[in-house]
Amino acid sequence: ARLWGLVPAAGIGHRFGGERPKQYQLLADGRSLLEASVQALLEGAELSGVMVALSEPDPFWPDQAIADDDRVMHCAGGAERAHSVYQGLVALLDQGAEAADWVLVHDAARPGLSAEALQRLIAQCRESGEGAILALPVRDTLKRGDGNGRITATLSREDLWQAQTPQMFPLGALKQALEEALSGSSLPTDEAAAMEAAGGPVQLVMGEPGNLKVTYPEDLAFL
Ligand code: CTP
Ligand code: MG
Q1: Tell me, what CATH number does 186's domain have?
Q2: Candidates 6, 24, 61, 81: which one to mutate for ligand 1, based on the most atoms within 8 Å of Cβ?
Q3: Which InterPro entries match (predicted)?
C-alpha cells in the first residue's frame, strides 16, 4: 500500500490573530508554517504525494515554494477541520489513491515534526496494520476548574496523553469514519476521535515536545 500526506490548511488562525492566516505566518528561517509542515512530511517519509486543503479563495498559496513541487497537490477545505480532512481524502482518491493506501494527516501548524518521530509512527502502523497517532504523555498535574478560576478537582495524569499529528490511518477506513462523524451532532477534533467512534483501534506512538502546534504568536519562540 502506498503512503500519502494530507495537510488541512483551511483555518483562519483566529487565536493567533495577525494579518494573514496562521499557516502563512513565518518562521525565523523565512518559511511559512505550512511550507515547513509539508516539508517535514516530504523529507521524513517516502510519500506518493501530499494533498493540502485550502480555504477558498486563498491568495497566499500561489507564492508558496511548495506550490510548484510536483508531489504537492491542493484542494478546497471546509468549514471545520473535519470537513477539510474529509475533502482532502476525496481529492486524494480523485488523484489515484486507493482505499487500502495509508494517509498521514498533519496540521499545517506543526512545523517542528522530526523525521525520527515520523518514522516511528510509520513503522508502528506498517508493523501492526493499525492506525496510530503521535502523542505525548501528560507531564503536569491536571486540575478541573469551576469556570470562575477555582479548582474543583485534581485529575490523575496516569494514562493521559496529548494528541499530536501526524495521525496515520488506512485511507478508506478514515474516510468512512469521518463520514459517520460528519453526520453526527458534534464534530471530532482529530482523526483519531472519528476512528475511535467508529470502533477502530488507534495506537499511541511517542511524539516529541518540538512537534508543538502553533496556536498563539508566542508559541513561535519554542520552535
Ligand atoms: N483547519 C482546516 N480547516 C478548518 C479549520 C482548521 O484545515 N476549517 C486546519 C488549520 O489550518 C490547521 C489545523 O486545521 O492547520 C489545526 O487547526 P487550528 O490549529 O485550530 O488552526 P485554526 O483553526 O486556523 O486556528 P484557530 O482555531 O485559532 O482559528
Ligand atoms: Mg481551529
Answers
A1: 3.90.550.10
A2: 81
A3: IspD, IspD/TarI, IspD/TarI_cytidylyltransf_bact, ISPD_synthase_CS, Nucleotide-diphossugar_trans
